[in-house]
Design a protein that fits this description.
The chain contains 15 helices and no strands.
Length: 400
């Protein structure tokens, strides 16, 4: 493994771990001295600018060197978390200021996400990308496990302010690790159009790839269904599967499945990567149906393991296919559309789960989500460019 790839893995691991610390830190800090409504304000303050700025961030990822955009995004997040730490150490929680700093963090996430994807394509040789994306997936999965536990321990032992300062240090480490990376090849000089023209060019490039649009929309359905599952699953576990501990068991088994999937992704002999993406996403229908039918705990846990294993496999495969099939000069704009659909869909699923359950019970929404998720993701296999085997060819130049 070359030095640039090691630096990439180290920096992205720092950023993933820092990102995983934030929700638990904010939740414990606000709930201790505020209310659920205050927590909703702070979390919304982070999500809204993230969604609004993603198209802008996609243009920035294609207009400027990815390492510089990632550097700026991580420094913004480091500064926002440093400010959050000082604010929490200073005294009573001030929701207004926390919301402002959360919005800055959301802006950093928006700009960092598409540029990080472009950075992988710029510094990692094509034959090494799948294995690198799989390693990044393992690091992200471990961060999702360790982050909340670390944040909770830091808040209980030292206070929420120190947890935020730790988060700031990790983002700073990511910034100075990734900011020094150099691309494999100097970017080709090109005449830059205006912002609106480049934004339209990104949409035109996305439309040039039916496989991308079909998968991005299918992933939106997947995330919507995941929001339903994360809301209704614990309720069903408490009512029918043995109490709150049963949901903990299911969640832990799912985490093991996720890590196993991302570990396996770089080792499976996949000739048609988008087949793996489609089947991996469609596997989410299994736990949706298991919870809806209130199957025994062992069966439900196994179904959730299979779904999370599928997610672990599809994530590196999808990232690698984007980096292979989408021209580098358009990857930021096209990839930001995929991220936007995913980021917006899951909160929608979380929001509509309770009203749907109140109107129709828990089984009907979960079964409907299972059918839609499976149909949407397996339906992409009907497209010829999805069924085609991996040709290894470089993508055609992007539309301007």
């Amino acid at each position: 493994m070359t030095s640039p790839i090691r630096r990439l893995l180290a920096g992205r691991t720092c950023a993933a771990f820092a990102t995983a610390l934030i929700p638990t830190t904010l939740t414990l800090a606000v709930v201790r001295s505020g209310s659920a409504a205050d927590l909703g304000i702070v979390l919304a303050a982070e999500l809204v600018p993230m969604l609004l700025l993603l198209p802008v961030a996609g243009v920035a990822a294609d207009r400027f060197p990815a390492r510089r955009v990632v550097l700026a995004a991580d420094l913004v997040r480091a500064a926002a978390q440093f400010g959050t730490g000082l604010l929490l150490l200073a005294g009573p929680v001030r929701i207004g200021w926390l919301a402002v700093l959360a919005a800055a963090t959301g802006a950093g996430v928006a700009f960092g996400n598409p540029s990080a994807r472009t950075l992988v394509a710029a510094v990692v040789p094509a034959p090494d990308r799948l294995r690198t994306n799989a390693r990044l997936g393992v690091a992200g999965g471990i961060a999702q496990i360790a982050g909340p536990a670390t944040a909770g321990g830091a808040v209980l032992a030292l206070g929420a302010g120190w947890s935020s300062l730790l988060t700031a240090a990790l983002f700073a480490g990511s910034a100075f690790t990734l900011g020094g990376l150099r691309p494999l090849h100097a970017p080709a000089a090109r005449v830059r159009a205006g912002f609106a023209a480049e934004l339209r060019g990104g949409w035109a490039e996305a439309r040039r790839h039916p496989w991308f649009l079909a998968n991005a929309l299918a992933h939106g359905v997947w995330h919507l269904a995941a929001g339903l599952l994360l809301t209704l699953g614990p309720l069903i576990a408490v009512e029918s599967l043995g109490g709150a501990g049963s949901w903990v068991v299911v969640a832990q088994v799912g985490t093991a499945g996720l890590l196993a999937g991302v570990w396996a992704a770089g080792r499976l002999p996949v000739r048609r990567p988008l087949y793996g993406v489609a089947v991996g996403a469609a596997a989410q229908a299994l736990p949706l149906a298991a919870f809806a039918l209130r199957l025994p705990l062992g069966v439900t846990a196994a179904a959730y393991f299979a779904a999370m294993f599928g997610l672990g496999v599809l994530s590196p495969l999808w990232e690698t296919e984007l980096q292979r099939r989408i021209p580098l000069e358009a990857l930021g704009r096209v990839g930001s559309l995929d991220t936007l659909i995913s980021f917006a869909s899951r909160p929608l699923g979380l929001a509509v789960a309770a009203p749907l359950a109140a109107a129709a019970g828990t089984a009907a929404p979960l079964l409907a989500a299972a059918v839609l998720s499976a149909a949407a993701n397996l339906g992409v296999l009907l497209l010829p460019d999805v069924r085609a085997a991996d040709s290894g060819r470089e993508p055609a130049p992007a539309l301007r």
